[in-house]
Design goal:
The protein is of the alpha/beta class. It has two domains: 2-175, 3-Layer(bba) Sandwich (FAD/NAD(P)-binding domain), CATH 3.50.50; 182-234, no CATH class. It is 23% helix and 20% strand. The protein has four helices and twelve strands; from the N terminus they run βαβαββββββββαββα. It has helices at 8-19, 52-65, 155-172, 208-218; strands at residues 2-4, 25-28, 69-72, 75-80, 87-91, 96-99, 102-104, 121-124, 126-129, 142-144, 182-184, 200-202. It has a five-stranded parallel sheet with strand order 3-2-1-7-10, covered by helices on one side. Strand 8 and strand 9 (126-129) form a beta hairpin. Helix 1 (8-19) runs parallel beside helix 2 and helix 1 packs parallel to helix 3 (155-172). It is globular. Bound molecules: flavin-adenine dinucleotide (FAD). Residues 4-10, 27-34, 36-37, 40-42, 74-75, 105-107, 109, 112, 146-147, 153-156, 158 line the site of flavin-adenine dinucleotide. Residues 2-32 form the FAD-dependent oxidoreductase 2 FAD-binding domain.
């Protein structure tokens, strides 16, 4: 699967698909609008808010830990393969890829989809893609997530919808019903139940100590990157 766009949305979809073993590549042009946010005060889980560039770094780190590959480049073209079994894509840097699934998570950029017939582009000053509630477009294997799928312009909404699109792809790819739950040791097996697909049982302390160390380290200092201004204000 290829995710075009590696902001909060694209990375959220990628975390879900990569965690379930789907080969996932994120191609990102590096212009996430999160770089312009001052401080995210409404992203659940951070009671005093979180630096938006720090959140972007944490999401990238999480996607890579899940097994996702990331490259910084711009996708210039996506086309359906002749036999309609997938897509071929090309980046500005000359990389080519073939894939069964594409997720467009590019906020309002749609130029790379110009070569695909049957994508409903909605133009309201900004461009959107016509999708159903789960992010499926009119073209099999092509999905659009977050702002592009007309979701509200809030980081958690974009993340949530894109995670849902990731799970939708797993369903469409015939993966077994999928939870992605991490449960207490013996939570299922003590009740003589098989572990459902995508579930794990862990020791109480198994990951907590690592999580504490990672978060303490990532939040020791202020994030080094400055907040970016709107491009129209750049000299
Ligand atoms: C000033 C400002 C303050 C904000 N404050 C808040 C706030 O406090 N709380 C809140 O919830 N939301 C806030 N938002 C909104 C929030 O930032 C966005 O809703 C959210 O970041 C959208 O995520 P995204 O992944 O869709 O977009 P982005 O994070 O912009 O990611 C899209 C990515 O796609 C890449 N891309 C585009 N085209 C291509 C291509 N062809 N090939 C490869 N990559 C491509 C871009 O480079 C970019 O990295 C704010 C926005 C702004 C501008």
């Amino acid at each position: 699967m290829v995710v075009v766009g590696g902001g909060v949305a694209g990375l959220s979809a990628a975390i879900f698909t990569a965690r379930h073993g789907l080969d996932t590549l994120v191609v990102d042009a590096g212009q996430s609008i999160l770089r312009r946010n001052a401080h995210l005060e409404n992203f659940p889980g951070f009671p005093a808010g979180v630096n938006a560039r720090q959140l972007l770094d944490l999401l990238s780190e999480q996607a890579e830990a899940a097994g996702c590959e990331r490259i910084e480049d711009t996708v210039v073209r996506v086309e359906e393969s002749d036999d309609r079994s997938g897509f071929a894509g090309e980046t500005e840097g000359g990389e080519r890829y073939r894939t069964e699934y594409v997720v467009a998570a590019t906020k309002n950029e749609v130029g790379h989809l110009d070569g695909i017939e049957g994508v409903g582009i909605i133009d309201r000053g900004k461009a959107f893609v016509d999708t159903n509630e789960r992010g499926r477009t009119g073209v099999d294997g092509l999905y659009a997530a977050d702002r592009l799928a007309e979701k509200p312009h809030q980081a958690i909404v974009c993340a949530g919808h894109s995670a849902e699109v990731g799970v939708t792809i797993l369903e469409d790819d015939d993966h077994p019903f999928y939870h992605d739950w991490v449960a207490h040791k013996d939570y299922f097996t003590d009740r003589e139940r098989d572990l459902p697909p995508g579930c794990e049982e862990i020791d109480e302390d198994e990951r907590e100590s690592n999580a504490l160390a990672v978060m303490q380290d990532r939040f020791v200092d202020r994030h080094p990157d400055d907040q970016e201004t709107h491009p129209s204000l750049e000299q």
